[in-house]
């Protein structure tokens, strides 16, 4: 299906944009690399340089062009779909609904984007465990942060950031009452994680388990 596209965020000017959350890590590693290089410690300097390059790669924040159709729901994360189908509710959703779970490896872009436009109705944070994010029990037992958005005239969509085995930091820049735009950046999870999206029961699913998706670009469903 063809959609018109737009930029929800103003396009940046950097040739290789980096998420703000990654700047402290990059600064610390670059400084340590420089110190070791000036001290003549070739091997530590090389290893730190490799770590600096990896962190820059991990925190990359490319621009995305977002489908403009008001009824389409876009992926909130880059990664692989590990579940897509109907479920009987969840921790933050009551009653039957459609769930799409996206696993992000350390090689995926980790900046998260809003899957829909609307008004933030609620935000729920729950501390938890750190099981592998591609396991089913991660949706129930891992540390997580849920955003529920009222999509005007279309019901509610809930999207949940879930920490993984390595991830230890969930970032979310939203609060209840905020107006959000589909495809706009809203947070990230550091170093491997998962996003679960809960759509109304009568939504049309547009992805399958095993499919690769891109945040803000891939349409994962359509609201009725």
What does this structure look like?
The chain has two domains: 20-58; 70-222, Glucose Permease (Domain IIA). Helix content is 17%, strand content 35%. The chain has helices at residues 23-38, 42-58, 138-141; strands spanning 5-6, 66-67, 72-74, 79-87, 97-104, 111-113, 118-126, 144-151, 155-163, 170-172, 179-180, 185-189, 193-200, 204-205, 212-213, 219-222. Strand 8 and strand 9 (155-163) form a beta hairpin. The mean pLDDT is 85. It is α+β, with helices and mostly antiparallel strands and 224 residues long. The strands form four sheets. Strands 11-7-8-9-13-5-4-15 form an eight-stranded antiparallel β-sheet, with no helix packed on it. A three-stranded antiparallel β-sheet has the order 3-16-14, with no helix packed on it. Strands 6-12-10 form a three-stranded antiparallel β-sheet, with no helix packed on it. The protein has three helices and 16 strands.
Keywords:
2 domains, single chain, alpha+beta, 224 residues, eight-stranded antiparallel beta sheet, three-stranded antiparallel beta sheet, Glucose Permease (Domain IIA)
Give a short summary of the structure.
With 224 residues, the chain is of the alpha+beta class. It has helices at residues 23-38, 42-58, 138-141, and strands at residues 5-6, 66-67, 72-74, 79-87, 97-104, 111-113, 118-126, 144-151, 155-163, 170-172, 179-180, 185-189, 193-200, 204-205, 212-213, 219-222.
């Amino acid at each position: 299906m063809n959609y018109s596209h737009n930029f929800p965020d103003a396009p940046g000017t950097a040739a290789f944009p980096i998420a703000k959350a990654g700047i402290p890590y990059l600064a610390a590693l670059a400084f340590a690399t420089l110190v070791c290089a000036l001290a003549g410690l070739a091997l530590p300097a090389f290893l730190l340089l490799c770590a600096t390059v990896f962190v820059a790669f991990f925190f990359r924040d490319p621009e995305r062009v977002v489908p403009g159709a008001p009824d389409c729901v876009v992926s909130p994360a880059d990664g692989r779909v590990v579940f897509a189908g109907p479920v009987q509710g969840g921790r933050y959703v009551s009653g039957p609904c459609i769930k799409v779970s996206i696993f992000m490896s350390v090689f995926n872009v980790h900046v998260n984007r809003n899957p829909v436009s609307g008004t933030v109705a609620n935000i729920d944070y729950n501390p938890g465990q750190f099981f592998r994010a591609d396991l089913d029990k991660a949706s129930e037992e891992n540390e997580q942060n849920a955003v529920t958005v009222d999509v005007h005239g279309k019901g509610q969509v809930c999207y949940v950031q879930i920490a993984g085995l390595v991830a230890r930091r969930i970032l979310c820049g939203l609060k209840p009452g905020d107006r959000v735009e589909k495809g706009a950046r809203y947070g990230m999870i550091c170093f491997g994680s998962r996003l679960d999206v809960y759509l109304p029961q009568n939504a049309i699913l547009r992805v399958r388990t095993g499919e690769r998706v891109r945040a803000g670009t891939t349409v994962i469903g359509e609201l009725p």
